[in-house]
Amino acid sequence: MSTTEQPTTDAAPSPALPDGPRGLLIGGEFVDAADGATMAVHNPATGEVMAEVAVAGQEDVDRAVRVARDAFVGAWRDVTPSARGKILWRLADLLEENADELALIESLDNGKPLAEARGDHGFSAEVFRYYAGAATKIDGRTVTPSAPGPWHAYTRREPLGVVGQIIPWNFPLMMAAWKVAPALAAGNTILLKPAEQTPLSALRLGELFLEAGLPPGVLNILNGDGAVTGAAIAGHDGVDKIAFTGSAETGRKIVHAATGNLKKVTLELGGKSPNVVFADADLEAATAGASAAIFSHMGEVCIAGSRLYVQEDVFDDVLAGVADNARALKVGPGTDPGTQLGPLVSVEQLARVTGYIEDGLRGGARALAGGARHGDRGYFVEPTVLVDVEPDARVVREEIFGPVLVARPFKDPEDLAREANDTRYGLAAGVWTKDLSKAHRAAAELQAGMVFINTYGAIDPSLPFGGYKESGWGRELGPDGLDPYLQTKTVVVAL
User: Fold this and answer.
1) Would you state the pLDDT for residue 14?
2) Is-above-0.90 flag for pTM?
C-alpha cells in the first residue's frame, strides 16, 4: 500500500459499459421476463443508472426449472466426464481472453479497482481449470459385505440434478465460478441468481459458456432480488439443492424456504474475523498485512480481518502504521488506474457502513483514521480505524462489510483466545508471530474454518473455504467443494 498519496475521488469520467446481454438466460437464449419486469443497475462511483436488466418472476423460475430438468436428463447427465472437463477448460481460456472487458464490467458494476477485478477473474479461471480436472476423478468404490453368501457391492457417485445457486455482490464473477464449476463438473444443471446489485458479469459469463459449447439449458441465469427471485428458487420443489453465499440472516430464510422438499443446502455466510499480532511478529509485515486484510476490496469481504488484536507492547506502533496506510489510500472510482479503494456497492451499503461508524463513535470509540463518508458523490467511505472500543460494542460484534477496522490490545494469549472466539461467527482468523510453536497453538485454539499465519486471505482452488458456527454449512473449493453436488448410491448384487 502506498504511504504517500492523499485520498481523492478526482478522476476522468468512467469509461462506457461494454455491450452485453441484459435479459434472462433460459434454455440457451437471452429472453425478457414473462411479465416484462426490469430493474436498474447503478454505477456505485456516481450513483447513476448505467443499465436495465430483466427480472425473473415465478413464471420465469418455473420455466427455467423445467428447462434445466430436461437438460439434465437429456443433454448433460450422460455427457462424459472428459467432455464436461473440456468445456470448463475452454471457459477458463475465454475468461482470460476477455479479461480486460470482464474487469471493466466488474469495476463499473461493483466499484472495485480494476486491478482487483483482474485478480478475481484470474483466480476464477483457475477454479474452472481445477474442476475441469476433477470431472474425471469422480468415482465410487467396491465393498466386500460381511453378510453370508456371494455378493458384489459397489457405490456410485452421481449428480443431484437441478441446483439453485445464489451469489453475492462483493465478488460477482468469482463467486459464480466457485459454485458453477463444481456443479457442472459433477454433472448437474443450474439456476444461477446473481445479486441484484451486480448482475452484469454473470450474464457475460453465461454468454461465454454458450461460446465454450455448454448445451442449452444446462446453465440458466435469472436476475432478480432475493425476496422474489431468490425465494422462488429456494422454495421450488423442482430444485434439488441450494448453494447460497451472503448474510447469516438471509441464510436462515434460505434454510426455511428449502424445507418444502428437504432439498440439500450449503451456506457460506458472514464473518467477523480476528487478526492477531503478537509482539514478536515482523511488525512491518504484520502492519501491511493487517491493512490489506481490511481495506482490500473496500472491506466488502466475508473473511476481512475486521477485528485487530495487537499485543499491548506494540499496539501503538502497529496501529499508527495501519492508520497511516489508511490515510494514504487513494480513494476513487474503480476504473481509475490509480484507485486503491473504490466505492461501496450501493447506497444501502453506504448507509449501513456509515451508520456503524457513527454508532461506534457515539459509543466512545476513537477514529485514528477516517470515520466518515468520503465526498458527496457516489458511495465512498473513508478507510476507518477505530480504537478504544469495548468488546460488546456493535462495531466489534457485528459484521460491517466495509473498510472499517476495530482494534483492541491484549496482554495474555489465553485472554486473547477467549475474546477472539467470543463471536457467533467463525470464518477466518490471522496470526502474526515469528514463533511457529505459538502460531500452531493459536491456529488450534481459534474457532475458525481458515487460519492464516504470517499472511492473510491466502486462498487457492485446492483448499477448502468455509467456516465454523454461524459462518455457514459445508465448504467450497477443493475436493470438499465437489462433494455437495454429488450423492452416493449403493448397489448390491447377489451372485
Assistant:
1) 76
2) yes
